[in-house]
Amino acid sequence: MDWIQIIFLALVQGITEFLPISSSAHLVLPAQLSDWPDQGLAFDVGVHFGTLIAVLTYFRRDLTDMATDFFSWPIRRAYTEHVDLVLKLGLASLPVAIAGFLAKDFVEDNLRTVPVIAATTILFALVLLVADQSRGRQETVGWTAAFFIGLAQVLALVPGTSRSGITITAALMLGLTRTAASKFSFLLAIPTIAGAQLLLTLDLTSALGDQVWRDLVAGAMISGLAAFVCIHFFIQLVERTGMLPYVIYRLALGVVLVFLIL
User: Which stretches within the chain are classed as H helix?
Assistant: First the structure.
């Protein structure tokens, strides 16, 4: 890849990973709609690693409190809100961990196509619009909500769905505020992305021979910086902007893709 492709794809990953518009779709489409070469598995791992570092850095204080309380829980026997949140994130992570392990090859071989992305982009834009109108006032995720958000996250294995989009959608439908839904979605990204990273890294033995480390490091750094800025502004603005801007973008993208495949 040349520098233009590296910078573009890294920025795309960093910006779209935490917006409800599907980062996987935006990484798949450039190679399918242009003469750019496919960036390959190794580069995808690199830019996802950048976004993982970004969310870990942004929520470092929350994560420190959560880790401190969780690991001291057996000794102090103090079931704090941080322990509760760690356990709920663990529960919500289980469905996609199981489904991702079982369906990874099927998704890679059959669903990374423009028609699939066009369909899911439009469908889940409309679902997100409905969810945003039915949001509630809850600031805390319950056990039932955590489980159903985790089930919804399985749909994000299909390109175009959007991991953040479908988990925020589910959280809004279950009565959470936009801010609470977004924060839980972003925290849930940590075990989800980390697990996906592990699976992808296991497949890198053959891919690394064709990939330049320069591309990986540059992609990770650029995507990480972009993701950090994106998380910050999304959380600051989500209550004011709502989900309508992302719904409009998804619908526009979906319509363009439909015209391209007709």
Answer: 3-16, 23-33, 40-58, 60-76, 81-110, 114-133, 143-153, 163-173, 178-202, 204-207, 213-241, 244-261
Q: What is the dihedral of CA 223, 226, 227, 231, to 10 degrees?
A: 180
38 DSSP assignment: P
**Cα(202)–Cα(206) distance, rounded to whole angstroms?**
10
CB 189 within 8 A of CB 163: yes
DSSP 194-207: HHHHHHHHHTHHHH
User: Total structural domains in the chain?
Assistant: 1
What's the pTM? 0.90
**110: domain range?**
3-261
Q: How far is residue 108's CA from residue 143's CA, in Å, rounded to a whole number?
A: 32
Q: Digits of tens for pLDDT over the chain (262 positions)?
A: 789 999 999 999 999 999 999 888 888 888 888 888 878 777 887 898 999 999 999 999 999 999 999 999 989 889 999 999 999 999 999 999 999 888 878 887 888 888 999 999 999 999 999 999 987 889 999 999 999 999 999 999 998 999 999 999 999 999 999 999 999 999 999 999 888 877 777 666 555 555 567 888 899 999 999 999 999 999 999 989 999 999 999 999 999 999 988 7
